[in-house]
Design brief:
The chain has helices at 15-38, 40-48, 55-84, 87-104, 113-135, 138-141, 147-178, 183-208, 217-220, 224-237, 243-274, 278-306, 308-328, 332-359, 366-394, 399-417, 422-431. With 432 residues, the chain is mainly α. The chain has one domain: MFS general substrate transporter like domains (Growth Hormone, Chain: A), CATH 1.20.1250.20. The longest helix has 32 residues, at 147-178. 56% of the residues are buried.
């Protein structure tokens, strides 16, 4: 059987279109890898905020504001995209917004805390919108029995985009440090590199990916916002019909909160607690992305074979182990073990969740349901990092206690996952 088999795709879908869709994961991964995880996060705390006691909390608070904006706007935007068949058009506008605001981060230097916070809120909001809309294309491309592997194709390929962006930035940082250039001068350049790669790589998506949805004639006779709110209200009234999707959303609120901690605070923890240098941190994140790519790709095939629920649950067990190791290790070698496990679990858990959500989404409401999924993910992204920042602040900077507490989020997610019935959830989606 071919590794990228045509029979994994819906009738009429060509492999080149799936490549175009996966290229968006490739394009936007540089943003999370360089800006949110490896470079700008640590620079904000150490360079822009001057290692103030409130710096980590301010970083998590800025991200939380952007996630709150997305939570309360993405479901209606998703409903609008379904009713107007506008997923691709909206994705283009959100991509432009993220690319411009990411490049503008180059303007943030030591002391410019307010500017950095505003630009992070704007760029991360646009990034989150784009991530939700591109996920909504997945059930249009993949057959239901192959959602796991096709999601894994995109997520795994996406990490290579993150590695390319980080690799280019790492090469520049090594050169700059060799020339005696300080962080306030070389970090802005990495923001420009990331923005340019994001914009250039996403062009393949807009060239190859098709908008298969058809506009709803009744919606065209109403204002877009009114029609989307009407549709969203109808979905919430039918929430009991989609109880497995709701259980999955609640599960995601907790486990994705833990994943968000790893994404947004890994570099800060590595440098502040374990003693990594910035160059070492970038290498660490590069290898973590390599492990995540392999995890997402391989787990997609396993997920379709053993089932969505078991595949996702096993990754949550791995996350608990990661938190325990990270909390007790005192050496860089020990932290490398935690990072390796985190990498494998990061790609697989996020890809598995995206595919599972696709199983429960009615075919004519894909963007809307992925908008609701994004609501859960972004709520998680507030709860996880903000609780980590609050615990760190309350304990006088004890990040070991904060990372140990993160394991509780994964345990709760694992318990809630037991309430999900995959077949019942799929039947409800088709009945809708």
């Amino acid at each position: 059987m071919a590794l990228f088999a045509q029979d994994a795709l819906n009738p009429g879908v060509r492999k080149r279109e799936v490549f175009g869709w996966a290229m968006y994961d490739f394009a936007n991964s540089g943003y999370t890898t360089v800006v949110i995880t490896a470079v700008f996060a640590a620079y904000f705390v150490g360079g822009i905020a001057g290692k103030a006691a409130w710096a980590t909390f301010a970083w998590t608070a800025a991200l939380s504001v952007s996630y709150a904006i997305v939570m309360f706007t993405m479901p209606s935007l998703g409903a609008y995209a379904d009713l107007r068949a506008a997923k691709k058009r909206l994705l283009a506008w959100f991509t432009i917004g993220c690319v411009i605001s990411t490049a503008a981060l180059a303007l943030a230097g030591p002391g410019s805390v307010a500017l950095a916070i505003v630009l992070i809120i704007i760029s991360n909001t646009f990034y989150s919108y784009g991530e939700s809309l591109t996920a909504a294309f997945l059930p249009e491309l993949a057959r239901p029995a192959a959602l796991g592997k096709v999601s894994g194709w995109g997520w795994g390929f996406g990490y290579f985009g993150g590695m390319l962006s980080l690799g280019l930035c790492l090469g520049y940082v090594i050169w700059a440090q060799g020339q005696g250039i300080k962080a306030e001068h070389f970090v802005p350049v990495t923001m420009i590199i990331t923005a340019l790669l994001y914009g250039a790589a996403s062009l393949a998506t807009f060239w190859l990916l098709k908008e298969r949805a058809q506009p709803n004639p009744a919606a065209l006779r109403q204002s877009g916002f009114k029609a989307s709110l009407t549709q969203l209200r109808s979905t919430f009234m039918q929430a009991r019909q989609f109880k497995d999707f709701m259980w999955l959303m609640l599960c995601a609120v907790f486990y994705q909160g833990g994943v968000a901690v790893a994404i947004t605070l890994a570099a800060i923890y590595a440098e502040s607690v374990i003693g990594f240098k910035q160059q070492e941190t970038m290498v660490l994140i590069f290898v973590l992305n390599l492990a995540a790519a392999g995890g997402a790709f391989a787990w997609g095939y396993l997920q379709d074979h053993i089932g969505h629920k078991i595949a996702l649950g096993s990754t949550l067990v791995g996350w608990v182990l990661t938190c325990v190791i990270a909390a007790i290790t005192t050496t860089k070698g020990g932290f490398w073990w935690a990072a390796a496990i985190a990498g494998l679990c990061m790609g697989s858990s996020q890809s598995a969740g995206r595919a599972m959500a696709g199983m429960f989404a009615p075919p004519k409401q894909l963007a809307e349901f992925y908008g609701l999924w994004t609501f859960a993910i972004r709520l998680a992204s507030i709860i996880g990092p903000l609780s980590y920042g609050a615990i760190t602040w309350a304990t006088g900077g004890n990040q070991r206690m904060a990372i140990a507490s993160t394991s509780v989020l994964f345990i709760i997610g694992l318990i809630l996952l037991t309430r999900v019935n995959v077949q019942r959830g799929r039947d409800a989606a088709l009945a809708a």
